[in-house]
Amino acid sequence: MIWLLALVSCFGLICAEEPFRHNDRVIGGSDAEPNTWKTQVSLQFDSSGNRYFSHICGGSVISSFYIMTAAHCILSTDASHYQVVVGEYNLAEYEGSEEFISVKRIIVHPDWNGDLGNGNDIAILRLATPIYANGYVEIANLPYPDQMLPHGFTCYITGWGSMDHFGNSPDKLQQAPINIVEHAVCSKPEWWGSLALKTMVCAGGDGIISGCHGDSGGPLHCFSDDVWRVHGVVSYGPAGMCNQVSKPTVFTRVSSFIYWMYSVMNEN
């Protein structure tokens, strides 16, 4: 359980005001078309040690050996408790496009301290075997160092987050368009205030579309410089109903951590 400024949070969701009941999913989204978001990963966890894995978070393929996700998705430092599934679309069916790969090593950002408001919510997983280029998987394009997108720029959030406050989850990958909220707006007191750092990306906040837990660690896809790039890693949002006005989904800004990621991958 994560705590933030003496407020209870729910696995990547900061408790803000709660005028509504809990409602979890890629809010306002729809089924993605199969084989569309090829960089998307399902990060799966086995708490029992019996090799029974279930989806807990999203992630992005950043090389044939590495996956990018959120630090708060790391529930154990024992890599044997994790597997990643690439080429996934329907979690309830085996479709022949999936690759199930064990995790060899977990590298959490050294400045992550469990406090979502402090930022640095990013981790890299080193796989035990490389991803096979089977036509259903791609390596994500990443943004330039410190690249920022303008206010109102439309991106896409994807994931398998649960669909309602009863915990019902979609089998098929969900997607939704979501607009960037610039830091000058997101850091206003009536928005996220001091919890919104420049190393984060805010998107949504219209009361219609948002991410939620279960989507944590997953990508924010933005078409910039003529290619799709993963500009964000789902980090936190409001507790209660996830699609609250002026409480956008907050992502770790990938462009702020490019040099760290490359140094980790070069060292390992």
Provide a short characterization of the protein structure.
The protein has 2 helices and 16 strands. By secondary structure, the chain is mainly beta.
Largest sheet: 6 strands, antiparallel, barrel
Which spans of ≥5 residues are poorly predicted at pLDDT below 50?
1-11, 13-25
Rg estimate, integer Å: 17 Å
Q: Which of globular, elongated, flat, extended, rod-shaped describes the shape?
A: globular
Tally of discrete structural domains: 2
Q: What is the CATH superfamily label of the largest domain?
A: Trypsin-like serine proteases
Q: How many strands in all?
A: 16
- CATH fold-level name of the largest domain: Thrombin, subunit H
- What's the average pLDDT? 88
CATH architecture of the largest domain: Beta Barrel
Helix content: under 10%
Beta-strand percentage range: 25-35%
Structure notes:
This protein is globular. The strands form 3 sheets. It has a 6-stranded antiparallel barrel with strand order 11-12-13-16-15-14. The chain has a 6-stranded antiparallel beta barrel with strand order 5-6-7-10-9-8. A two-stranded antiparallel ribbon has the order 1-2. The chain has 2 domains: 14-32 and 141-255, Thrombin, subunit H; 40-139 and 258-267, Trypsin-like serine proteases (Thrombin, subunit H), CATH 2.40.10. The protein contains 2 helices and 16 strands. The protein is mainly β. It starts with a strand and ends with a helix.
